[in-house]
User: Fold these one by one.
Assistant:
Number 1:
Amino acid sequence: MITVIGSINMDLAVVMDTFPKQGETVLGQEFSTIPGGKGANQAIASVKLGSDVQFIGCVGKDRFGEQLTNNLQHYQIDITGIHQVDAPTGVANILIHKHDNRIVVIPGANAALTTQQIDAHWHKIAQSKLVIMQLEISEAVVAYVLDKCKQAKIKVLLNPAPAQHFSLDWMEHLAYMTPNESECEQIFQKPYEQVVAMYPNKVIVTLGSKGACYHDGQKLVAIEGYKADVVDTTGAGDTFNGALAHALMNESSLADAVYFANIAASLSVEKFGAQGGMPTVAEVQQRMKQ
């Protein structure tokens, strides 16, 4: 069982010919409302690959909250840990131009997740082989879960996004940390090659089309990216994290798990929307044979 503790958002996606400059108005091509949130995305990425997943988080008492909860239930994710609160459901405003995206997240109900709610569901969390978190929820809740998981000897995979909310004190509590290149350098103020050497087999840095890397205690291990026909990069990092968690929980070595996650992420960018492109295990295995 994987427990995801994190964010649930409705993505408000706009496809455009060009990003607006300051004070400029431009015409968009398409507008879509798409289920998202880093927590929900990572949960769905894992479950589509075959993992059992339960979710702990918050939504508002509004239409978006109802739609997003139903969406997670559709994927057979255990939603008994999702609370309705008196705050609007989180949203993410996503501007998409060619193969680039710019995202503004409004946490809304995600910020209402409390340590008391963690305690209320601890009996279920304690059954997990792995807990996945991101930083679109309260820092206090992240710190609390890390402490409880360390005491219970439950492994935690933390995706430190947005990076400005990360605390270096958390490193000793983590089994795995998955920043992208810019997040890694923002947190540690060092090139990522130095960081992975400081935390062997713990920090896995995603490098977009260049793949991913980590240090195995003796050398830098680079997993090359897989060439993809890019449609939308939204959710590629979340797919990587969900796939990495799935592979690790199925006894893969770290090298094999990172390779598997890399292939899954490459497939995810070939369709529109964060969750729509997330692959099944059969699709990943098929691409691995190519």
Note: The longest strand covers residues 28-36.
Number 2:
Amino acid sequence: MKILVFSSLAYSLVNFRGALLCRMKDAGHDVVAVAPDDDPAVSAWLRERNIEFRIVSMNRTGMKPLEDIRTLLGYVSLILKERPGLILAYTQKPIIYGGIAARLTGNIPFYALMSGLGYLFSPDGSKPGLKRSIFLRLYREGVRRAKKIFVFNRDDHEDMIAAGIVDRDQTVIQVPGSGVDTTHFVQQPLPAGPTHFLMVGRLMRDKGVYEFLEAARKLRQEFPDAQFSILGRAEVFNPTGISKDDIPRLQSEYPVTFLEETTDVRPYLAQSSVFVLPSYYREGLPRTILEALATGRAVITTDMPGCRDPIEVGVNGLIVPPQNADALAGAMRTFLETPGQAQEMGEKSRAIAEAVYDVAKVNDILTGHMGLQNVSHPAAAPSAQLVAKQA
């Protein structure tokens, strides 16, 4: 069977779906990966694995009708040319316009992988308005004929029903996120020396960057040896983004080191003691948390959909209210006052990653529900790391 996989960014095809693409290819299917940008490293990676790559233009941020229509027509043209037996789409615009295109070209079996509800379900974007109404209507049209809709956390299904995106009779299946390659992200011993808190994520307000900065400032006077770092990509076009020009000022005002985007996040996780993600963005299930679990790190995150799902409070991490720097500082203080907890919780994190979030197990679920499994190729999950994954 030929399978089209629609994405909104080329690098995500490898970083987030590489193992799934390879799994489908190994099962004997012809796989065509689709993105709006031409990334030479991605196309080379796909070519080496005999996975075809196609480009369909897309404006990734905001609603621009002419450009969105161009994306829809591009999908329709590609579907008519490739004649796939199945389409899988993930992230908002590929799901919306991929789902509509699948209907326009003959109701080709369409599956939506909803990795998070995104900005319009976050506090900054959830206010009623014309833009939100149009988006919700488009989303509903995109998934209206989806065979199955996959979600990453226990909250998204009910919220999609409440927003009118799906009906109760549609098939919505929760899966354990994108999974993590536990052979690539191996357990690492905690570093010697002062406790080091690491945040990994795109530099956006609603990822909790300012809460992390404020918590670090509160703790520095009491614990002068504690270390605080943020690893992430500056976001210029995102509504809540923090630009590169902001970083020098923030580093001068707060006791936090900003680390540049990297092709391999593992050394930074290995150098950390505790992983922190104070996000109030509407996550699916943050890949960064899963990578921290696999590395054997305790996690502090927020009581938000997706973020809280992999955390057993007091077992492998702590959960704090969103947008609350005081509570975040309090949770971080726990590890500063009792350093041994980072070791104990880190061990539990690794066990949870192996038992629940291993990418091979996640892909078993996905391919099983889409009818793509081949018993002669069980649990194939080759490494799919290419560039830093900053959720």
Note: The chain is about 40% helix and 15% strand.
